[in-house]
Structure formats: C-alpha cells, structure tokens
C-alpha cells in the first residue's frame, strides 16, 4: 500500500505545483487546495499504515493488542484539514474580491506593488 | 502550576472574544484593545521575571505528562520574545486609537489584533512542533485579514502574494512535521531532540532539516524567499504595517533559532553553512533593494529583510558569542523597526504622502519628530551608543572570532549601506525644503493635538526603550547571554521538559 500512496502523493504535489506556477489566480488557488491535501496524505502515510485493530481499550478493560493503528496522525490530519479549510476559504474569498477590484485574472498584470 | 506561561496566550484570546462581544460598540473595543494589550504586557513581564528566576517555566496543558500532552515551555528566548510582543502590542494598540479609521474598526480590527497577538505568543511559548504549526496558522489567518482590511487595489495584489507564499510555507512545514513524525514518532520538541540523535540515517534528518529551513525561511523573509514582504508590507494602515514589521517575520526567525539549536544540531557543517550563505545574501539583497526605493515604507520593508540576515548570521555561526549577538539583534530590531514604521505613519498623517520626493521640511515644522526619527534610524544603522551598535558589535566580533572573513565584510558593508538609506530618508523627508505647497496632491485634514499626542506617545516610549538598551548594554547582554547559553545546551531543555532521564 505504501508505494502506491507514495506515487499518488508525489503526483498530487507535482500537479499542485504545476497549477500554482500558472498565471491565473483561480488555478493558483486550485494548486493550494491540492498541495494541502497532498500534505495531509503524506502525514497519514508516513506515520505508517496499519491494517489492524483500532486503538480503543475495550469496555471490559482488556489490554490493547500488539498491533494497533496509531491514532495521533489521524488527529493531526483532522486538525490540518480544518485549518486548511479555513485558510483556503479565505483564499477563495480573497481572489474573488481581488478580481472585483483589479478586474484581471492574470498574475502578470498584478505588479503594482512589486517595484 | 505556573499560570504565567499560559496567560500571554489566554489574555489576547479573551480580549479578542470580548471585543467580538462588543461588536457594535467602537468605544468598548478600543478600551479592550488598550486594556488587553496592557494586561499582556504585564503578564509578559511576570513571565520574564519568573524565567529569570527558574530558567525554564513549564506547563503541561490539561495535566498530561510531557511527551503525550501539549507542553508550554518558556525559556529565556521565549520569555524575551513574549516580552517584546507585549511591548509592541501595547504600543500599536495605543497608536491605533487615533490612526485606525471607523471603517476598519467596524470590520473587526481589534479582535484581529488580539488574535494575531495570541498566535504570536503561542508560537513563542509552545513546546510541541505540531502546536507550533497551529499557532502559525492562527497568526497567519489574523494577519491575512488585517492585511486586506480596507480593500484597496494595492492591498489585494500584495495580499495574493503574501497569502500564497505563506500558505506554501505552511504546507512545507506540515509535510516536514509529517516526515519527522514518521522518523521519530513523537511531536514534543524535547522528545524529538532526544530521539533524533538515535536515528541512524543522518541524510533523512538533513532533508527534513532543509524542509524546515525553507518553510521558516519563507516566513522569516530570508533570501531567496523574501519577495512577498516588500510587496505586501507597505499596503495596509501604518499601525498594521508596524505590527507586522515588528513581530511576524521574527516568529519565523524564532522558529529557526529554536529548531536549529534544539533539534537539528548534529550536522552543523551542512545546515548552518547554508544558513550562513542565506544570511549573507539576505543582508545584501535587502539593503540593495532599499537603496533603489523612494517610498518611505518600502525602504523600511526592504530593511526588515536586510536585518533578518543579521539575526540568521548569529544563528548560522553557531558559536556562543554569535548566538548572543543574534538574540541581542532580535531584541533591538523589533523595537526599532516598529518605531520607524510608526514614525512613517505620523509623517503620512501630517503630509499626506509616503513618497520621499513629495515630502520635505518636516524637521523645520516639527523638530521633535525629527529627533524621534533619528534615534531609531541611527540605531538601525548601528551608531553608538544606541542599541544597534552593541548588537552589530557582538555579531561582527563573533564572526571575526569564527574566522569567517567574507561575512564580516558583508555585515560591515551592509551597516554602511543602512546608514546611507537612513540618511536618504532624513535628507528627503526631514531636511530638504518642502516642495511647492501647490504641487502637494491633496490637502491634508488638520490633526487635533490630542490625536497627535496619542501617536507620539508610543514612539517616545519605544525610543526610550532603544536608548535604554543602548545605555544599559551590559544588562541586556546578560539576558541575551543567558538565552544563548540555554540554546547551546539542548540537554538542559530536554531535561527540563521531560524530567531527568536515567
């Protein structure tokens, strides 16, 4: 499973970077969405994918088995998803407002503040 | 229990929530703005005092023991940074009263200000690497919103670059955390530091180290990742610019200091060599960029980049003296830089423009303002006896002792060019005759005396801090030395957080 996930994550990172390098701000945001998902998958995969029991102590108080899934990466991914959701919704609103004010969808035209 | 570690985070969060509750009352929001930041300043002093006494002040959130729960750790460096956050937060809150317009206030300027301060203080105090990421995001989200309040064209364009690069940096940071967790299986920074030494494959650690370097490098605006900063920092209201200039990039610098002394200290030849060249180029590009500018805040923005180079140089040389210099430099820089931005705000309020070519004659009309500008400006350039002189002196002495002649020469040259930029501002804004009044683009509304005093008050306070640091160099040197000693002794940090290991 890990090799497949590694390739998938690599492809998502690559396509995200491709999208971010394009000139349109809409594609820029799509790139940001993709790259944050790639990072989440990366955490999930790197921490080790175990196909076994959930890390829950049963009601009768038996000790945990030898191999259980690590709950921490799932907590991290959950946190990261929530944060990414908030930040990306801000980014979407930002490009909408920016488009309304600047009236272009081309990063090359947004050079007023560069020089 | 040591509540003083959690209070610098809780107070701004509470103040922010309170000002949300008084959404309709601008008066209450202003009151909470000043009272909340004053309380933050008071607790940061308390934290500073108790860190001086105990060395490390630690609190396990929720009572979970160290490697499992989230730990809040204050050592000397954190305490210094939190104290500076308190000072800058209070100064900016007072300065905001007369300068932030009604439109900004009704759209939640004060709640965002508090949220930003909470994020910054949280990043300085946390001892958990994932928690550091969360505080970074809290801080970033607040800064995004502050940056675009007002919605002018330049703000939008600056914000797109700022948001994109900072999000990219966060994603790299998150990926690096994931990889590091895969390698060592823990998130507590002290625990990571202990276990990184046990990982056999050093190459993997180095790769993760470079990912952290890139991510924090973007946030700290180090070469070659700095260009979002001069594109964005001159667009929002001056109070916001000043807050960003003082605190945001310094959070990145703090994270670099923390991570590259505590965790990634096993292949110094590789990582710190990259940092050293990054520092040299950051200094040079920043100061050269500033030399080409003719707009007050853009010059100052490029100087932030250049000054970041000095701080990184202290970290990159990685000798005790160099770290003292680096910490001293942060200490001096945050106060001076914020102050210069605040002064640019007063000049703008009086003259209605930031363009150096259209400004002039400020010294003749307001001599006090000229003197107040000279204190931080000369300090930034490193003229004795002001604070910048000691910071630069320590750093340059450390680089000579380390035998790095190239960086010594670059640092001295950059100091000279900084002086050039500051004299350019002095000559154009304060000294030369004002251009014809007719050509002034717009008539500026007169400023009431009360407003002017509210604007000058924080500047006087910050200038007094600069002079104080300059005249009591030894006192501050001792503080910086204590924090450098702690940074060079990761075992002390590990023992303090995890308890003595057998």
TrEMBL record, chain A:
Q: Which GO terms describe its cellular component?
A: plasma membrane
| Domain of life, source organism | Bacteria
Q: Name one Pfam family in it.
A: Oxidored_q2
Q: Where in the cell is it found?
A: Cell membrane
User: What are the alphabetically sorted keywords of the record?
Assistant: Cell membrane, Membrane, Transmembrane, Transmembrane helix
Tell me which InterPro entries the record gives: CPA3_antiporter_subunitC, NUOK/Mnh_C1-like
Q: How does this protein sit in the membrane?
A: Multi-pass membrane protein
Determine if Cell cycle is one of this entry's keywords.
no
Q: Which residue spans traverse the membrane?
A: 6-21, 28-49, 75-95
Q: Does the keyword Hydrolase apply?
A: no
Query: Matching Gene3D superfamilies, A to Z?
Result: 1.10.287.3510
Extract the NCBIfam families matched here.
Answer: PRK12659.1
The family line of this record is:
Belongs to the CPA3 antiporters (TC 2.A.63) subunit C family.
PANTHER family membership: ANTIPORTER SUBUNIT MNHC2-RELATED
Protein's name in the database: Multisubunit sodium/proton antiporter MrpC subunit
**Native source species:** Kushneria indalinina DSM 14324
UniProtKB/TrEMBL annotation, chain B:
Q: Which Pfam families match?
A: Proton_antipo_M
Tell me which GO cellular component terms the UniProt record holds.
Answer: plasma membrane
Q: Where are the transmembrane segments?
A: 6-23, 30-49, 69-95, 107-126, 132-150, 162-184, 204-229, 241-263, 275-296, 308-328, 334-350, 362-382, 402-423, 452-471
Ranges where the NADH:quinone oxidoreductase/Mrp antiporter transmembrane domain occurs: 128-417
Q: What keywords is this UniProt entry annotated with?
A: Cell membrane, Membrane, Transmembrane, Transmembrane helix
Which superkingdom heads the taxonomic lineage of this protein's source?
Bacteria
Q: Name one GO biological process term.
A: ATP synthesis coupled electron transport
Recorded GO molecular functions are:
NADH dehydrogenase (ubiquinone) activity
Q: How does it sit in the membrane?
A: Multi-pass membrane protein
Q: Where in the cell is it found?
A: Cell membrane; Membrane
Primary location recorded for the protein, binned into one broad class: membrane
Q: Which family does it belong to?
A: Belongs to the CPA3 antiporters (TC 2.A.63) subunit D family.
Question: What is the recorded name of this protein?
Answer: Multisubunit sodium/proton antiporter MrpD subunit
Q: What is the lineage of its organism?
A: Bacteria, Pseudomonadati, Pseudomonadota, Gammaproteobacteria, Oceanospirillales
């Amino acid at each position: 499973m890990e090799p497949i996930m590694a390739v998938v994550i690599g492809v998502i990172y690559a396509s995200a970077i491709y999208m971010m390098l394009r000139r349109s701000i809409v594609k820029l945001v799509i790139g940001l969405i993709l790259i944050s998902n790639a990072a989440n998958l990366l955490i999930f995969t790197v921490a080790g994918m175990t196909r076994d029991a959930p890390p829950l102590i049963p009601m009768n108080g038996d000790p945990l088995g030898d191999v259980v899934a690590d709950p921490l990466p799932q907590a991290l991914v959950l946190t990261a998803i929530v944060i990414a959701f908030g930040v990306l919704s801000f980014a979407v609103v930002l490009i909408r407002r920016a488009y309304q004010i600047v009236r272009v969808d081309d990063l090359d035209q947004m050079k007023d503040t560069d020089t | 229990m040591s509540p003083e570690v959690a209070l610098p985070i809780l107070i701004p969060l509470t103040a922010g929530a309170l000002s949300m509750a008084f959404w309709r009352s601008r008066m209450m929001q202003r009151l909470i703005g000043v009272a909340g930041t004053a309380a933050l300043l008071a607790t940061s002093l308390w934290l500073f005092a108790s860190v001086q006494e105990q060395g490390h002040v630690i609190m396990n959130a929720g009572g979970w023991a160290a490697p499992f729960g989230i730990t809040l750790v204050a050592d000397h460096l954190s305490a210094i940074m939190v104290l500076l956050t308190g000072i800058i937060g209070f100064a900016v809150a007072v300065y905001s009263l007369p300068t932030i317009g009604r439109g900004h206030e009704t759209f939640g300027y004060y709640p965002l200000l508090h949220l930003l301060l909470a994020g910054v203080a949280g990043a300085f105090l946390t001892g958990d690497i994932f928690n550091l990421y969360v505080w970074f995001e809290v801080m970033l989200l607040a800064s995004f919103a502050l940056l675009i309040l007002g919605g002018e064209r330049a703000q939008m364009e600056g914000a797109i670059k700022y948001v994109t690069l900072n999000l990219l940096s966060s994603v790299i940071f998150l990926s690096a955390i994931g990889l590091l967790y895969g390698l060592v299986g823990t998130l507590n920074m002290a625990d990571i530091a202990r276990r990184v030494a046990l990982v056999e494959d050093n190459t993997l650690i180095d790769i993760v180290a470079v990912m952290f370097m890139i991510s924090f490098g973007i946030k700290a605006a180090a070469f070659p990742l700095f260009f979002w900063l001069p594109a964005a920092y001159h667009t929002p209201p001056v109070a916001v610019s000043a807050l960003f200039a003082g605190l945001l990039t310094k959070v990145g610098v703090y994270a670099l200091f923390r991570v590259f002394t505590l965790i990634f200290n096993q292949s110094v030849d590789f990582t710190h060599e990259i940092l050293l060249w990054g520092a040299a180029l950051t200094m040079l590009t920043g100061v050269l960029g500033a030399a080409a500018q003719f707009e007050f805040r853009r010059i100052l923005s490029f100087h932030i980049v250049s000054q970041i180079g000095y701080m990184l140089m202290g970290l990159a040389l990685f000798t005790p003296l160099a770290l003292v210099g680096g910490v001293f430099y942060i200490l001096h820089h945050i106060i001076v830089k914020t102050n210069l931005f605040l002064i640019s705000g007063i000049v703008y309020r009086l003259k209605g423009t930031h363009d150096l070519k259209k400004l002039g004659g400020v010294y003749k009309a307001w001599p006090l303002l000229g003197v107040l500008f000279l204190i931080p400006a000369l300090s930034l350039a490193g003229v004795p006896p002001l604070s910048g002189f000691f910071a630069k002196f320590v750093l340059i002495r450390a680089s000579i002792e380390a035998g790095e002649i190239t960086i010594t020469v670059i640092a001295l040259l950059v100091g000279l060019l900084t002086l050039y930029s500051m004299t350019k501002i002095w000559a154009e804004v304060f000294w030369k005759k004002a251009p014809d009044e007719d050509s002034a683009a717009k008539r500026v509304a007169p400023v009431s005396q009360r407003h002017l005093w509210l604007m000058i008050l924080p500047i006087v306070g910050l200038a007094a801090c600069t002079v104080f640091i300059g005249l009591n160099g030894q006192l501050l040197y001792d503080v910086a030395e204590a924090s450098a000693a702690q940074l060079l002794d990761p075992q002390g940090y590990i023992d303090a957080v995890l308890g003595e290991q057998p």
